[in-house]
Amino acid sequence: DGSVQTKQESGKWQKIILAAILIFLSGFSLYDSFALDGSLPLIQNHFVIRNSQTALINTFCSFAHSFSLAILWVLGDFIDRKILLSSSIGGWIVSCVLSSTAQQSKYWVFMTFRSLSSIFSAIFGVLIPVVLADLFDDKTLGKALMSLFLIESFTGIISASITSWFVTSALPWFSPLLIAPPLSLLLLPPLICLIKTRKRSRLFKKRSFRDSLKLFSIKSFLLMVMGQTFGMFNLKASTFWTPSFLLTAWSYAPSVFFGLSYPVVISINSFVSLLGSMLGLPIVMFIAHSWNFGTSIMKDRRNSSAFPIVVSIGSLITVLVYLVVLLSTGRNFLLSSISLFFTSFCSAAEGALGQLMMLIVVPRRSRSSAVSLSRLITGILTIPSAQFVGQLTDLFMAESDVLEDRFLSFRNALLFSWIFVLLCALSYSFVTCFYAQDAKRAKEMDEMDREAEEEADSLLRSIEARNSRMLRSAIHSPSLFLFSFGQEIILRRTSESLEEEE
To answer: What is its main location (predicted)?
Structure first.
């Protein structure tokens, strides 16, 4: 008994360490993405390009991202997850490092390697939450996904402070882009040692693509994809251009920022955003879980639709406070900082629960396909996001080089992008109507899959045991061998028929 308990404890800690490695790798990947956005002034100066040309980085990366998701959607279940995860992380590290070697006249080289890094990061970005869902269940999975969101928020926010320091320093233009790859390289060996190959039955593999198409019949899943698409359209555009917008606002009206330097302004905004996320995340998760399971402050008030209700309320409030952020930036630093805090606080609802809700409403066997498909659709439809805002800024600014015109062009373009935040909130509000029914159906399908797999595995074990007896009978009795061989054929055909019926 003691040895069994020790083995269980060891397995538990291995899961926790593996989850921590995956979460930090996701954070490093997101940091690199935000560092690229924050380094736009350095990239523009190095390659001597305009805003619309700069936005091509985002456009090409989005195309590459979508391509990798399409391949993963079709082939992801047929490739060993350990190999796919470790090789994609290694490829991402190499591509990021090579992109920094581009010469001033070789902008296409930089875009090529950044596109490759986007392909690799998209692959392990899909696999990380799926692996976490394999490791944990129910409330533990919620905590793991909450930690994933918290680390991603933290690294995404501090990247702005770090890159702002590089922007105002005399270091090489690629310096902020060479932080995440070495740190990720340190985590790759323990990841390879800890992650195990997940055995998948033939029953699962034969049905994987067919089941991935059935995802389109899940109404709450489709609405979540719509919400993610609208929200990501604004997020991609705003994160790509916000550092440049803030730099322009700081240059245009330094008195509004109380004479603070640009790195200090970025650091304050980063701290405010981080504080909002860190406070909002546990509060939102506590309320949502209490309401969903009928515990703590919501004792005996269980509501199976608690998750989408909390997300929709948080999204609707985010619509209002984010509008205040855009209008007050460059006008009132205190008001914009307070609004930024509440934006991060309220948006924590979607960040903490959005991924969890999607994993709940789809069957376990389709989780990888669901995450890939949702990100594929989102990636394709948000390809022109940064280009859209970049073209608007050039349109509003025309040929003017006046700093005020540049500031107003950024603000007006981002206000156009705000419309997608509103559409995101409306989409999540409609999820409430279908979530409970879809979650119940997914749970029933998981139970049916478990029974079918047990039956198929039992039949396969019978075949293997009979094969062993056949070898012995072939030596001692040829006639008994022929009889056993005939039964083996019947059993195998029965197994294949069972898989085809499923």
So the answer is: membrane
